[in-house]
Amino acid sequence: MPDAVAWYRLAADTGHIDAQYQLGLIYFNGAAPGPNRPDSWFEAASQRDNKSAEKALRILFPYGIAVDKDLDAAFSWTWAAATAGKVEAAAVLGEMYRRGLGCAQNYEEAQRWFWLAAAQGNASAQFALGDIHYQGLGVAVDHAAAAIWYEQAAEQGDARAQVALASMYLQGQGRPVDHKAAARLFVQAAEQSEVRGLFHAALMYLKGEGLPENIDKAETYLRAAAKRDYLPAIISLAEFYVSGNGVAPDFREAAHWHGRAAELGHVQSQFIIGRLHAEGTGVPVNARESARWFLRAAEQGHATAAHNIAACYATGSGVEQDLAKAIEWYRRAADGGISASQVQLGKLYAAGEGVPRDLTLAVSWLRRASESGDPEAKTALALMHLQGDGAVRDPSRAEELLRQAAEDGHAAAATQLGHLYSGKYAVEASSKDAVAWYRKAAEAGNIEAQYTLGMLHSNGQGVNKDPEAAAAWIEKAAHNDHAASQFQLAVMYCTGQGVPQDLAKAVIWYELAAELGHPLAQYNLAVMLSKGQGCKADQARAIAWFQKAAEQGVAPAQAALSRLDSAEKAAASANEAARPPAPETKPAAPIAPAVDSPIPHPAPAETPAPGPAPSPRLRAVSPSREDGIAQAPITPPADRPAVRTPDPKILGAHKWFLDVVESAISGLGSGRQGPSRTATIPSSDRPTPSARSGGIPQSSADTIARMRTAPDHPAARTNPGQRGEKLKSSTPREAPVARAEPAPKRDAKKPDDRLDDFLPDVLRQLDNIKIP
Q1: Rounded distance between C-alpha atoms, residue 601 and residue 48, angstroms
Q2: Alpha helices, DSSP H only, in 120-194?
Q3: Cβ atoms of 386 and 398 closer than 8 Å
Q4: What DSSP string describes 597-638?
Q5: How confident is the model at residue 351 (pLDDT cuts 50, 70, 90)?
Q6: How confident is the model at residue 266 (pLDDT cuts 50, 70, 90)?
Q7: Interacting residues of 687 by C-beta distance below 8 A, sequence separation 6+
Q8: FRET pair for 400, CA 20 to 30 Å: which of 128, 237, 376, 686?
């Protein structure tokens, strides 16, 4: 191009009009070398020998390889060509005067030069005059005059004029509203790949306005415009794939185009792509990407995105946990009118988390949110009025707020009203009202209300005692990973209260509750595993669950572990004493015993022969107790195999050992103390799937489905603790509770194998353990 400029200059200096016009265009736009041009060859050569490459470049291209933009030179050469009568130069000169490029802005001069070019049929000048009259640049706004000039340019095929005139037909500016005329002009522009023509023609095909409805053409035009990074087309295309328009939505395509719009700075698309990454819709779940886009949108003032990034900082989802940043973004979102952020700030100030505890500020934020009609805010504020002290406590105002929220369909508020009328908050009780609100909340799907209503039916409190209704409501809550409901349902299956007695189902529900951290479920599961009731006996797993229950302070579990440990130690001591003396032979070097050898666990009890299922006697939870402990012992079934009689010779050799074992057995079956009241875990404080030290189990969906469909029931499972895959859950799952490893096998040649006939009998005495 620099060589061309040199030759153009020689011609222009002699008065050649076309050369002057071309020089003006080159200096107006500048000329950079493109791909495979001299600069590419120079860059490759300079990497080998920079000095030689520069020398060769100067010889081959003495005028250089690019032309810099020079508006002064562009104006000078364009003016020369225009004054010499070049029509195209006159149109360009008018544009330079209009925009003040290379000269002072002057609308009068611009209009004069546009008139000269337009009068000779120049479409660009005609379009420019249309713009001048439409926008009122140096003249009064005149839509009719603008439409005339646009029409003249459009008839010559100017795509910009076609789009402008079509828009005037749509809006009724300077021309009457005419969708067909507008559609015709938009399609003409679209056929020239004008992005606005493509976009508007697509919309008209999509809506069937001025054109027959044609989804395929609409999609084609939208994609063509979107590929040229026309933001309105990108956004419309993303929405097109979300809605589906008569076909299944394509969330993968929607995510792609929202992502492109987000990269171009569209704030709503930034928020949407953040949400799609959070939900895994159209893209893989990616907490880091979700947080990144929420932050980008929040920084541009998107209030909901600010709330979402605050939640990310509060929980450490996709970003490093930072409560100070969370509070900062909650404040920005709250100031933007997001009531959920106002509620969160109220709760943080009430709890003193990340900020000094300030009940006045807490009430202020919650009141601000409740005034916007947020039912969650009303519920939170009501609880502060019920649980607070001094000026904060206001039961009558709390009742009013809860009624407002409950009548708006907020199930949690209806549940709290049930608590209020049941006397939980030191307010006059009304069983009838309590049951009514519990029922309303339960029917709306509130898990706590379903469990509470079930327990009321079970105990006959405020309603007629109805075991079947109790089981139905408790089962609804149990299917939603409510540990207390799962435990109570297991008790019902053990006792046959409200449901047919089924020990296999009892084991399943005990295990689900146990994996959710319910201590009494852990203990009861351990007892049933140790006895093989409703499942195959598994001593290793039983001990593991005894240990978990013991860690949570369940006294019977601690006692069971202590006695099992004592029995194993006694067995080990007896075995050591019973070893025959070494033969009197030539002395050999002593062999040191392995101090870390595991003590063999007793072999599990034999599986009883086929026969009628055992019928343990368990009662449901007493109405006076809220801890859910089964009240009656599980008695051994009548058809249990009798204890085998040991060989008299071995009996004589180990009589003193049997005395020790019998003493241990006697201790297992008697003198047990019930669990301490201090170990009771109220339902409101029980661990939740999101805050539990024992890990979060997998979903119970497959287990429940197997309970309903298996012809031979789960009692025949080889691994009762196995779980199916997650069906649905909004909470990330952690690893299930670890199972205890089975005891190592003993060498059949060791003398302590003679105890195999005795240790199962020790474990069978666990039948005498009572479940408190």
Answers
A1: 77
A2: 123-135, 143-155, 159-171, 179-190
A3: yes
A4: PPPPPPPPPPPPPS-SPP-----PPPTT-SS----S--PPPT
A5: confident
A6: very high
A7: 483, 516, 517, 693, 694
A8: 686
